[in-house]
Amino acid sequence: MAVAFNTPVVDIYGPTVTDFGFYPYRNGTVVEIKGLGCRPCGLHGHNQCPIKTFDCMKKISPDMVLHAYNRVVEKTEVKK
C-alpha cells in the first residue's frame, strides 16, 4: 500500500526474498540477512522456522533497521 502512494518504506525480509517480486520497487529499502542457506523457506514465510533457528529474523539487529530508516529519510529529504 505504501508503495502505491509513494510513501517511503523499510521492508524487513526474513524467510522470503525479493526475488519473489515483493519489494519496495520505488522509495524504499530492504533489510535482510544475505547468505543464509535456508532462505527462502517459503513464499510468505512460516509460523515456525523449518530448521528451528529463525536466524533470518534473529540476526536482523535494531541497528540494521535504524540504518535503513535513516537511508530512506535521507533520500526523502534530498527530494524535497
Structural class: alpha+beta
Poorly predicted spans? none
- Number of self-contained structural domains: 1
* Approximate strand percentage: 5-15%
Order of strands, widest sheet: 1-2
SS elements, strand count: 2
Rg value: 14 Å
Can you give the mean pLDDT? Answer: 87
Largest sheet: 2 strands, parallel
| SSE topology string | EEHH
Describe this structure in words.
The chain has one domain (3-79). The mean pLDDT is 87. The chain has helices at residues 55-58, 62-79; strands at 9-13, 28-32. The protein has 80 residues and is an alpha+beta fold. It is 28% helix and 12% strand. It has 2 helices and 2 strands; from the N terminus they run E-E-H-H. The chain has a two-stranded parallel sheet with strand order 1-2.
Give a quick summary of the entry:
With 80 residues, the protein is of the alpha+beta class. The chain has one domain (3-79). Helices cover 28% and strands 12% of the residues.
